[in-house]
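Teaching assistant's notes for section 4

Start the section by putting this record on the projector. Ask students to predict, before seeing the second block, whether Fur family ferric uptake transcriptional regulator will look compact or extended. Collect guesses on the board.
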Amino acid sequence: MTPRQPIPATTARLSAAGLRSTATRRAALDLLAEGGHLEVSEVYERLLTELPGTSLQAVYGVLGALTDAGLARRIAHDGGPARYEARVGDNHHHLVCRECGRMEDVACVVGAAPCLIPENTHGFTIDAADVTFIGLCQDCAEHAPV
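Reveal the predicted structure now:
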């Protein structure tokens, strides 16, 4: 398969974040920009079709670098694998189905970031709240035993 053409701003975004523009970084960032919440294994499988020499370790490294540079967000919750998305900087939250693992974005619960502030901050300056709502998606709820 022919490698996809990078989204025009991808190289500039990598450079602005202080990262070298490698084929794997460009492809991973473009893949995340297509939307969704991808596990490392999903990113790896999709990149293999474009960049056959890519290793799983390289994908872990690329996703870590993109996250550290603020170009991707790592989402981890109890009971599930970490996932990555390109939607950063808006302090949105997530809904996760405990049955099938489906994940959806939801806007800040209360106002603007950080959305929620605890009664006692213990001296912390809070700039973000990471909230994961866990329940059953509609499909799983419809098929759940009564």
